[in-house]
């Protein structure tokens, strides 16, 4: 009878373990990162008698989570790419809307400015026409400066988000190291006896970290998880955490507004992580936006500003004012020195300004006086015609583009890149959903299935209890015979 009671008891214990696990699955069906768990049962060692082996019931061997490292890695890879495109798209959309706007873009201001030049060419002796030209020039300068200011604001926001993202990466790395330590304490029996809920928490932290920057992981023999980024730079090794930091640009010449990602070393120094090594995640998207689009857009806008000022000044300096004198006057502030470096070109648009305020100083004339049968001063428009001709002159991009077409190329460059990023984001969203669906097919909780399991394990529990009840009845019968 004792053997029958023992077998019934093991059945009750096994059924109870299944009920506990199933209940745990149901209550965590909506918990982010939770992997469905199953109870693994095995038979107890059988009892040998002369007639053969008699079973001794069952026991709980382990509680395992339904987890596939390959499927999980697919989700991480797709998630990192999707977050990269998402961060890139959010930033580039602002630049695209700014440059392509019909009212706030540069094209209308350029057209109005050269319309003012043509008015002076038509009536070179008109002081109001000359004053109107200076006003349109100031509007053009204001438009350059406004575009530069807005691009600088976008740059500052992007740089601030880079710093914030690095801080979040460091925070997640510390949390993963803490979980590693807790898992090491709990899994004292070895990696085969897993702390499933802690493993889910750690995987969830890795997934959140992976949204910020693409990472790879290696499970160590002690159950801890090492996390790497870039080309293999360690963020977490066991309970040891490496710290990322954002420091000033060390290139020559440096960009005072650009931050570099560095990895702190134990000795108090730091190692530069080139932007090309940091891919995926929001951080990768923000770095790519800065390097591929924002800096290029600012440089191209600066090149246009430098070219407009230099070409217009060169022609204007060769003319004569309303009085037929004062040659060599610059119409715009000389910003040609900004062209020497990439950092300078990015700042040139903000320095674009009008150099003259007196309308009589506009050099519309092509002759200093009335000698040799030429008209001079206000009645001569030869230089104004040359200034007006700059509107259609191919003086940019290797003498292949006008000012307007160069700006159109800039708008097209940003627009095409924005479209490319939008398509990439939608594609990665679809791939991410496919990867999640495949993972959830294995690891997700199906409430209908779990409800059916509850009924099955309840019946199993009741059957095991019935075995014990029968054993008790038989034992009573034996006792009654002995009396």
List keywords for this structure.
four-stranded antiparallel beta sheet; 3 domains; three-stranded antiparallel beta sheet; alpha+beta; cell projection; 483 residues; 10 helices
Outline the fold blueprint.
Elements: H1 2-27, E1 37-43, E2 47-49, E3 52-54, E4 58-65, H2 69-100, H3 106-122, H4 127-186, H5 196-212, E5 215-219, E6 225-229, E7 233-237, E8 240-241, E9 244-248, E10 259-264, E11 270-272, H6 281-317, H7 342-351, H8 382-389, H9 403-443, H10 447-482
Antiparallel strand pairs: 1-4, 2-3, 5-6, 6-7, 7-8, 9-10, 10-11
Helix pairs in contact: 1-10, 2-4, 2-5, 2-6, 2-9, 3-4, 3-8, 3-9, 4-5, 4-6, 4-7, 5-6, 6-7, 6-9
Pfam family, one: Flg_bbr_C
Domain Flagellar hook-associated protein FlgK helical: 93-332
Family: Belongs to the flagella basal body rod proteins family.
How many structural domains are formed by the residues? 3
Sketch the major β-sheet: 4 strands, antiparallel
Helical fraction equals: 55-70%
Compute the average pLDDT: 89
Helix and strand pattern: HEEEEHHHHEEEEEEEHHHHH
Percent strand equals: 5-15%
**Unreliable residue stretches:** none
Number of alpha- plus pi-helical segments:
10
**In which order are the strands of the major sheet placed?**
5-6-7-8
Q: How would you explain this protein's 3D organization?
A:
The protein contains ten helices and eleven strands. 35% of the residues are buried. With 483 residues, the chain is of the alpha+beta class. It has helices spanning 2-27, 69-100, 106-122, 127-186, 196-212, 281-317, 342-351, 382-389, 403-443, 447-482; strands at 37-43, 47-49, 52-54, 58-65, 215-219, 225-229, 233-237, 240-241, 244-248, 259-264, 270-272. The chain is 59% helix and 11% strand. The protein folds into three domains: 2-65 and 445-482, no CATH class; 95-152 and 290-418; 156-285, no CATH class. The mean pLDDT is 89. The chain has a four-stranded antiparallel β-sheet with strand order 5-6-7-8. The radius of gyration is 38 Å and the shape is rod-shaped. Strand 2 (47-49) and strand 3 form a beta hairpin.
